[in-house]
Amino acid sequence: MKEVDRYTIECIGIPSLVLMERAALAVFEEVKKHVQKTDPIWVLCGNGNNGADGVAAARMLHLNGYHVQAILAGTKDRGSLEYVKQLDIAEKVGVDLVEYPDFSPGSCMLFVDALFGVGLNREILGAYREIMETFMEYRPVFTVAVDIPSGVHSDTGQIMGTAFPADVTVTFGYEKLGSMLYPGKEYCGQVTVADIGFPQKSLLETGTGYFTFEPGDEKLIPKRPAYSNKGSFGKVLIAAGGRNMSGAAYLSALAAYRTGAGLVKIFTVEENRTILQTGLPEAVIVTYDPKEAETGTEAFQELLKTQCEWASVIVLGPGLGREAYVKNLVEEVLTNAYVPIILDADGLSTIAANPKLTGYFTENIIVTPHLGEMARLTGSSIEAIRKNLIAAAREYADRFGITCVLKDAVTIVACKDQRTYINSSGNSAMAKAGSGDVLTGIIAGLMALGLEESDGAALGVWLHGRAGDAVREKYGSYSLLASQLTEELYTIMQEQTREQRDEIIWQGL
Fold it and tell me: Less packed terminus of the chain by CB within 10 Å, N or C?
């Protein structure tokens, strides 16, 4: 955003103060929604451009008859050029400006946080920390943050010693990573992205490798042509389910079917045949003897090779367990498959325990670790990974030239083409056994429909989260079951079906 701002001002020629006026107007419009004109409003301003936005917003509130006071954390004669200019304008129109040492607190209905912006890159200490802690003690009824809550690192979402919690964050141009990643996400409240006049060219010229999805992006799900058959929509092989672990295989297979795959085959131990055939008769069941898998008999190798040749995408790992034969199974799939492979759960644990297996990784691999699995794969601590989600996912994906889906409260997809997806859907109700198995099935279903690895992984994560949001809306935050995620997929896929139907009608007309 700093580079977009610079390019817009220096190369496009839009003056900085013009952008600032539009930013302040967006804050002003948000504040108006939450107060009466007689309610006391405090605007805490730093001496950078974030503070200048705050001073300009205070001026607009003052000129519109609101009871506002701008508190200056720094002195009036020190700050950015824009800050000094905004102070000069504010003084001339009679805004109540007070330097922090002279501030006399009272009651506050609405607090505008314009202390630090996206440039904060070190821990808040000393006088500024004292100022922040003092204002936190006043406990304003409602807080609006300007661009990003002060104290939240705009790149990582980490808290730089302390931070103001906001009810609403008005951010400018594009959302910041810090407002999408935890713990910063919790401090931002509702995020409103305000268009303040950055031309699209500024983003294209400066570039960004980060993206997310929003409602309406269902259109990215591949369309199903009218003239087709089950073979037209891909063949998904689910190598999953050890003894007493049929549920993982079932959920992945069901999710693949619900997402649109034409054929799904489950490759599992013989003990799982009856329950899987009963629970999901639509799936083809192929079983093997774990003893043959452990010794690597020629019959087992040939059986598995045949399944890999049949598939157009493979899910490898859910519920396989940790028995000795699993290593051979994983290695055989990696050796014989020439189609995309989604490595999950016990498949990843096998890789972590046998790092040499990464030698079979090709660009068609998708790994889907949660933080614990990522720690085992990389040797890093869970806490270190949590603090640097994007860097951890990006480093692992780039090391092997693969796609890495790092699952957390906000899931990151480090695509093999250097793009990085930050997920914007989902909720804590989805933290249930089986939820990850559903995700692998959704990704497999999308790839069976024709999406390549990176796009399938990113879109799959978003659809998975949207299904979780729909379940929580119906059943609350406690009662979600993983199988319900597959049931809600149809509501999302309906939107794509409706779009296709409307297109057919339009073409007919």
Answer: C
Segment 63-85 shows an average pLDDT of 93
Q: What is the residue-averaged pLDDT of the chain?
A: 94
- Fill in the amino acid letter for 158: Q
In this structure, the number of other CB atoms found within 10 A of the CB of residue 359 comes to 8
pLDDT of 182 strictly over 90: yes
For the segment 411-454, what is each residue's pLDDT rounded down to a tens digit?
999 999 999 999 999 999 999 999 999 999 999 999 999 999 99
CA distances from 432 to 28, 464, 484 (A): 42, 13, 11
CB 114 within 8 A of CB 43: yes
Tokens for 361? 């990784």
pLDDT-based confidence at residue 505 (cuts at 50, 70, 90): very low
Residues 174, 208: Cα–Cα separation, whole Å: 11
Q: Among 63, 56, 174, which Cα is nearest to 112's? A: 56
Strands 412-414 and 420-422: antiparallel
Q: What is the DSSP string of 5-65?
A: HHHIIIII---HHHHHHHHHHHHHHHHHTT--TTS-EEEEE-SSHHHHHHHHHHHHHHHTT
The three-class DSSP label of residue 494 is helix
Start-end of H helices in 93-151: 126-138
Phi, psi of 449 (to 5 degrees): -75, -15
Helix (H) or strand (E) holding 172: strand 168-172
